[in-house]
Amino acid sequence: MTHIDPVGALRAMLMIRAFEDALARRKEHGFQLLSSGEEAVAVGLVSALGTGDQLLTGGRSIGPALARGVAPERVMAELLGKSGGMNQGRAGRGHMSDPQAGFFGAHAVVGGNISIAAGVAMARQLDGDGGIVAILFGDGACGAGALHETLNMAAQWKLPILFVCNNNQLSVSTARDAALAVANLSDLGATFGMWARTVDGLDVQGVAAAAHDAVRHVRDGLGPAFLECTSIRLRSHSTTARETRSRAELAELQTHCPIRRHAAALQADGTLDDAQLEQMRQDAATDIAHAMAYAEASPYPTAQEALRHVV
């Protein structure tokens, strides 16, 4: 059974990569956490969510926001601090949100979004509207007390929440195996009796299939679920952080790029040829050039706008 349009998935991943590459090339790009190598996790996860569901993320929020359907030009403007952003330039990468698009928001504090997600899930449960919440976080948050406390509460109250760990295997520069004792991070959910699974986060169709299973479990009222997606990070921790991995390590990681992998599979089965793939790349670059132009043309917020909602 196909859980995601394979060509649409590739198009979404190419758009995210083109967006982040364009942002990184801009001299004044601000402090950003990019998700190159993790696109399949966001795109596969979002394919399982309905329009009435909400997605929350940590600080590495650009890819998930775009995958959820927030307009690229509004995301770019927000990242550049412009009034055309979805939060009028006041939130930036660390706190941007668009609940109407199903993106409840980002949180810059590691693990800080997890208990908030439980609150959103409880509200959905009390409203009885059938919506669920997905919370996306990294392996760096798996040692945080907030996660363990929230897992316990979510299991106890059967909250409609899907915990998704994007395990890129590095917490800044600390290897996952050096920081966390469990064999699989999904074991954290299993400890509390949750539906739990670990999947290859570089396989967008595999992520989509697992995410659909998890969402069905949660939506059916069977309690929360925990999905671990093992991925890679092709860039340094942030746009200001020094890369701690060798050139050889980075080159080897590039051979596992989820976009290359998915594109190669579509070419191998005859879905796409070289010309079609190149056209998709060009289309993504064109769309992001338009998004950048919109953001560049957008003014900075006035002092009055910047202080609106500030108490």
List the helices and strands and how they pair.
Elements lengths: L5 H20 L13 H8 L7 E4 L4 H7 L3 H8 L12 H4 L7 E3 L8 H14 L5 E6 L6 H13 L3 E7 L2 E2 L2 E2 H4 L7 H5 L3 E6 L3 H16 L5 E6 L16 H8 L3 H11 L5 H24 L5 H4 L5
Parallel strand pairs: 1-2, 1-3, 3-4, 4-8, 7-8
Antiparallel strand pairs: 5-6
Structural class: alpha/beta
Shape designation: globular
CATH superfamily: Thiamin diphosphate (ThDP)-binding fold, Pyr/PP domains
Major sheet size, sense and barrel closure: 6 strands, parallel
DSSP summary: helix tally: 14
Task: Enter the CATH topology name.
Answer: Rossmann fold
Protein name: Thiamine pyrophosphate-dependent dehydrogenase E1 component subunit alpha
InterPro entries: DH_E1, PDH_E1_Alpha_Subunit, THDP-binding
Organism: Gluconacetobacter tumulisoli
GO molecular function: pyruvate dehydrogenase (acetyl-transferring) activity
Please characterize this protein's 3D structure.
The chain is an alpha/beta fold and 311 residues long. It is built from 14 helices and 8 strands. A 6-stranded parallel β-sheet has the order 2-1-3-4-8-7, sandwiched between helices. A two-stranded antiparallel sheet has the order 5-6. Helix 1 crosses helix 3 (62-68). It is globular and about 50 Å long.
Please give a quick description of this structure.
By secondary structure, the chain is α/β, with parallel strands linked by helices.
